[in-house]
Specification:
single chain, alpha/beta, four-stranded antiparallel β-sheet, disordered C terminus, binds adenosine-5'-triphosphate, binds magnesium ion, ABC_AA/LPS_Transport, ABC transporter ATP-binding protein, ABC_transporter-like_ATP-bd, ATP-binding, ATP binding
Length: 291
């Protein structure tokens, strides 16, 4: 957190009473949440709690049935590209990279909203366009250095191991120069070392002056990383507070542990997964293109 006495905390994200209904199903019910400058806020909750749906409401992918989302005091229009332009970037639970483009090209795509060069300039490839292109490339390479992917700039995204694909998604999100970064399960599929590295990366992003809102199921990761944590259960915000408060809240514990472990794999399923892993090639095969 910022120790400079001159710095005042400002509200970066202000979501108030956001409700999202799909037909008869209320996936998110009257959820309010703020993220302040300098903060890393966590969003937890069991599968199907409405976490991703809430993100989709924040980023204009869904138009909330009710409620309002403001970024730095301005109400956001529910259009993804306008939300990105305003300063909110995100990554996806199911990785969305351009699998057949290089690592560098993927980051350049993320810079698109920040380059001011217009269509004619791009078509004529005039001096303004060339300068902007050069600057974009330099910035993209800086971000690849920052995320530890610079050596793989020319690799195709689909050839990266899974953990690096997640990092590339973060680099691409940062390329739009956001003031708020939303991460949907950034460590899913990562091994413990990669998870530790992701934690350091997110701290570094916060230190760059970017506020972070992160969804994760890995509680150790969340409670270590976040200044504040909110827990969603069945679309409603059950508890919000410091990691200490949330992790000892009985309702949160009950929400995770009190119900039968429906999602827990049985012995048969475990054996099946192990067999599949043994048979699979060691290179990544999990790239999921835009869905
Ligand atoms: N486009 C949609 N149409 C209909 N129902 C949807 C849609 N998107 C999500 N839902 C439903 O909304 C509920 C919340 O889903 P959501 O994906 O937001 O949960 P989540 O908390 O992100 O879960 P997980 O931890 O498994 O990712 C679920 O019941 C889901 O089936
Ligand atoms: Mg989700």
């Amino acid at each position: 957190m910022n120790t400079m006495t001159t710095t005042t905390t400002t509200t970066v994200l202000d979501a108030s009473d956001v409700t999202m209904r799909f037909g008869g199903l209320t996936a998110v019910r009257s959820v309010s949440l703020t993220v302040n400058s300098g903060e890393i806020v966590g969003l937890i909750g069991p599968n199907g709690a409405g976490k991703t749906t809430f993100f989709n409401c924040l980023t204009g992918l869904y138009v909330p049935t009710e409620g309002k989302v403001s970024y730095k005091g301005t109400v956001l229009p529910p259009k993804p590209h306008l939300v990105t332009q305003a300063g909110i970037a995100r990554t996806f639970q199911n990785i969305r990279l351009f699998a057949n483009m290089t690592v560098l090209e993927n980051v350049l795509v993320g810079r698109h909203t920040r380059t001011k060069e217009g269509l004619w300039s791009a078509l004529l490839r005039g001096p303004g366009f060339k300068r902007a292109e050069k600057e974009s490339k330099e910035r993209a390479m800086e971000l690849l250095e920052f995320t530890g992917l610079a050596a793989k700039a020319d690799h195709l995204a689909r050839n990266l191991p899974y953990g690096e694909q997640r990092k590339l998604e973060i680099a691409r999100a940062l390329a739009s120069e956001p003031g708020l970064l939303l991460l949907d399960e950034p460590t899913a599929g990562m091994n413990p070392q990669e998870t530790r590295a992701a934690e350091e990366l997110i701290f570094a992003i916060r230190d760059m002056g970017i506020a972070v809102l992160v969804i994760e199921h890995d509680m150790r990761f969340i409670f270590n990383l976040c200044d504040r944590v909110a827990c969603l259960v069945q679309g409603e915000k059950l508890v919000e507070g410091t990691p200490e408060v949330v992790q000892s809240d009985e309702r949160v514990i009950a929400a995770y542990l009190g119900t039968p472990f429906e999602g827990a794999p049985g012995a048969d399923e475990l054996a099946e997964v192990e067999a599949a892993e043994a048979a699979a090639p060691s290179t990544n095969s999990r790239t999921e293109e835009a869905q």
